[in-house]
Amino acid sequence: MAKHKTPLLDQLESGPWPSFVSDIKQEAENRAKNEKGLDYQVAVDCPEDLLGVLEMSYTDGETHWKHGGIVGVFGYGGGVIGRYCDQPEMFPGVAHFHTVRVAQPTGKWYTTDFLRQLMDIWDLRGSGLTNMHGATGDIVMLGTTTPQLEEIFWELTHDMNNDLGGSGSNLRTPAACMGMSRCEYACYDSQELCYNLTQEYQDELHRPAFPYKFKFKFDACPNGCVAAIARSDLGFLGTWKDPIKIDQEKVAAYVGGEIAPNAGAHAGRDWGAFDIQKEVVDLCPSQCLSYEGGKLVMDHKECVRCMHCINTMPQALKIGDERGVSMFCGAKAPILDGPQMGSLLVPFVEVNKDDDYQAIKDIIENVWDWWMDEGKNRERIGETMKRLGFAALAEAAGVGIDPRQVQEPRHNPYIFWKAEDVEGGWERDIDDFRKRHQR
Amino acid sequence: MAFISSGYNPDKPMEGRISDIGPRHFTEFLPPVIAKNFGKWDYHEILEPGLLCHTGVSGDKAYTVRCGTARLMTVTHIREICDIADKFCGGFLRFTTRNNIEFILESLDEAKELMKFLEAQKFEGGSYKFPVGGTGAGVTNIVHTQGWVHCHTPATDASGTVKATMDAVFDDFKEMKLPAPVRISMACCLNMCGAVHCSDIAILGIHRKPPIIDHKYLDNLCEIPLAVAACPTGAVRPSKVEIDGETYKTVAIKEERCMFCGNCYTMCPSLPLSDGEGDGIAIMVGGKISNRLTKPAFSKVVVPFVPNEPPRWPTMTKVIKKILDTYAAEANKYERLGDWANRIGWERFFEKCDLEFSAHLIDDFRDPAYYTWRQTSQFKW
């Protein structure tokens, strides 16, 4: 017998898509049965109470969760988000219901051993509810009480050799695409770079010292599967400089219909025979392709590496060999100043594991130093950059100036010249001026 | 319940403490065929919806079976997933950025057997546990936020709106019949933890009423200067009120300046915005992230407000389905939703998708608004 009546939520059990309501009910039943005889460390019935409070929101059209409050583990300023229900008498099981963010392995590959260990902790010390995963990428454990936090952290670090993730005004848990582990387009090892920088900047991740949140995301190619260009303060996007490699025999196989275009992504509908002129050559945004005499020809100097031809014929076309990373700065969602796309700060930088990615770390640290000096409270770096100008950011980052950093040059001539830019500087003699001009 | 200690001693919190170790290294979690061919993949194919095949330069093949999840998952459910990975995949699995699960296998037969197994798993309520799909020119899983399940600032629910939407577009999750991939994303307030601002279709919770001021408690619960500074439009200023003969330090709000972002509430719990009638959903379309063919683009608001209609949000899903179906019928192969709308013109987009254009859809927020107004006579009747 369910603890609370949930007539509205029950309607979300039908339909084909996996029902979170059914799943929570299943969990509630299992916790009530407690076949393993666990001495649950938080209320046994918290899944039922979560459904109860959610049903109340479905009736009211309003949330019933209160502001966080300060909870966490000793020495860390992030990783745990305090959460309390605003109807604790009705739903005591979720009266205190804090979130724990757990650092995920890069690329989100798992062994079942790891997941089972984590689930054992969360069964005993948490609500049994999780998010796999939060929007930033962490494993999110939903719902525990304050006395359990140090215990969870102890078990995570001692038994699982794993850390908490980030929250608050600090470096958030960096996230990467699965890169070289299973993708032929990877221009660099996004997972290794992500891991290395995560380890390097543990202090920034756990102890808030920034004006606001800061996100790193790593896409290994311009397809952008983790959205680095749209949702990270510093986004890393793999790219290359030399020509795309073309296998003309395989091109012929696509044209001949032996290989399905776009890896078969359009198989659900009859789009007609593959037409290389229409589907590849004519669509090329920089018009650097032509198809003549059965051969695909590329004027590679003009290629903008949009990936379309490669995505369409992955067996025939391969990314170049001179590979590196483009760095984009300042992407964010609307709060506060409207949405911002990452702006291209560094067109190309080597990804060199042998010197511990020093070239990349130098840029990151320059950018942080500038932002920590100039940024206002709760100002993302994209907003600081807009307020003080891209050139100021580029100068602070020490990355040089390049036409690739702009879509087009400025529309207005209100150039902030500095004294040192101008012959003779700004110091002038009014008496000398008056020799030529009467008052 | 008796308190079970992990070994942590609150009297000596630094004793034996381990910190700042970060996540485990990802190579500990790679299936053997993935580890062996790391960085040496040659090409990939989508053999059927939900089934990928990656071929290494070595000739090795890795078959990936992809299935959707509700993202909000319980311990019991994750253990079920582990059982499947143990039985079929040597104890390995991965999650995608869009909350799908991927199982890696080394033979096609085993992959097909797993697909059949996954499709047979159902929750007691009747829904699939692990629907296979989410590949190629289709709709993949929706990334979303917490909503009423766990968040203090939402204007709507996340898990419920996502469930209702995915039920409505389920065919497009299972098949690959769209002109290009369509990424639907959901964020339950303007804070956009889910960063839906670059999605083909975005479901966005919004508030429409200025904050209520809890005058009697405000000064005790928050720093007034922080609440004032938090407002991007300068609508909040320090003030005093007299209630029952007592004077309270508080704030006043210039309501006509409020854009309902909720940033003041984030800084000050005494300024709640939530309201059953005021809150609901805006629908945005035409964003993208990849650099393929066209530049990454922001989503545009095409429906300023749909009321919250729990549990199934029928108006919202109807609008989404209409946009998706019209796009599917009219766009060119490889053309993303926003690129299609740009090509035919947004005035035509509204007409074809049966959407009303109103003054709420003309941007009036600061400088970038200007770049969204039309400065040409090249418009369509």
TrEMBL record, chain A:
Top EC class of this enzyme: oxidoreductase
GO biological process: sulfate assimilation
Enzyme Commission numbers on file: 1.8.99.5
One Pfam match: NIR_SIR
Keywords from the named record: 4Fe-4S, Iron, Iron-sulfur, Metal-binding, Oxidoreductase
Gene3D superfamilies in alphabetical order: 3.30.70.20, 3.30.70.2500, 6.10.140.1420, Sulfite Reductase Hemoprotein, domain 1
GO annotations of cellular component type: sulfite reductase complex (NADPH)
Domain of life: Bacteria
A GO MF label: sulfite reductase activity
Entries under PROSITE patterns matching the protein: 4FE4S_FER_2
Statement: the UniProt record of this protein carries the keyword Oxidoreductase: yes
4Fe-4S ferredoxin-type domain mapped to chain residues: 294-322
Protein name (Swiss-Prot/TrEMBL): Dissimilatory-type sulfite reductase subunit alpha
This protein's encoding gene: dsrA
TrEMBL record, chain B:
GO (cellular component) term, any one: sulfite reductase complex (NADPH)
Top-tier EC class: oxidoreductase
Alphabetical keyword list: 4Fe-4S, Iron, Iron-sulfur, Metal-binding, Oxidoreductase
UniProt xrefs under PROSITE patterns: 4FE4S_FER_1 (PS00198), 4FE4S_FER_2 (PS51379)
Record SUPFAM superfamilies: 4Fe-4S ferredoxins (SSF54862), Nitrite and sulphite reductase 4Fe-4S domain-like (SSF56014), Nitrite/Sulfite reductase N-terminal domain-like (SSF55124)
Source species, domain of life: Bacteria
GO biological process: sulfate assimilation
Record InterPro entries: 4Fe4S_Fe-S-bd, 4Fe4S_Fe_S_CS, DsrB, NiRdtase/SiRdtase_haem-b_fer, Nit/Sulf_reduc_fer-like_dom_sf, NO2/SO3_Rdtase_4Fe4S_dom, NO2/SO3_Rdtase_4Fe4S_prot, NO2/SO3_Rdtase_4Fe4S_sf
EC number in record: 1.8.99.5
Obligatory cofactor(s): [4Fe-4S] cluster; siroheme
TM spans (from-to): none
Domain 4Fe-4S ferredoxin-type: 249-278
MF GO annotations: 4 iron, 4 sulfur cluster binding; dissimilatory sulfite reductase (NADH) activity; electron transfer activity; heme binding; metal ion binding; sulfite reductase (ferredoxin) activity; sulfite reductase activity
UniProt-recorded name of the protein: Dissimilatory-type sulfite reductase subunit beta
